[in-house]
Amino acid sequence: ILEATGTAENSKTTIQLLEGAVINQINEALSDKSVYELNTQNATMSVRGTVYRAEVTVESDGATGSSSDNSATESGNSASGNNNQSVSEDGTLVTGVQTFDGIVVTDPLQANGEKSNNEKSVESGKQVKIKREDNKNDYVGDTEDIVFDELNGQTLEYLDMVVQNGEQDIGKTPEELEDLKEVAGPFKVTFIYDKK
Hints:
Blueprint: E1 2-6, E2 11-16, E3 20-25, E4 35-39, E5 43-47, E6 51-60, E7 63-66, E8 92-101, E9 103-108, E10 120-123, E11 126-133, E12 136-139, E13 144-145, H1 153-164, H2 174-184
Parallel strand pairs: 2-4
Antiparallel strand pairs: 1-2, 3-6, 4-5, 5-9, 6-7, 6-8, 8-11, 9-10, 11-12, 11-13
Helix pairs in contact: 1-2
């Protein structure tokens, strides 16, 4: 759910992402009195003017799987409500944040849904993960470089549009993004059935 109120001088925008992935692009820096937040079940992100991607996945049996792996768009499911919703017993909630331009401030949520005041700034070209284990949300390591060749085709396509339009500098040239898109897909798989 997207909630937006106020004016350009004093606005509040809140996005609640329960599953899937979403790319946010804010072209103009927000005023000092404005707020732009993206919340998941285990983290909150605040921005001032940036391009970033957030994804909510569920780890099960040691593997990370995204509920958006087969979706046609990069947008995820969102809904308002309690941030402290439970994840199935066989899965562990993980929120990933990748900042392509600007800075995103992340903060794991406490079990009661309140901010933990353990903020971490994720700068351009960096990413971080927040994981829920034993009913506690915390960072998985420190911020690290984004591995662009692990991004999906939809994300690379969007970033290519941002660069082509000259909107923001994400640290990649159009040529580099084109090469990455070729490696990322789309892939076509053909199955052949042999009656033997």
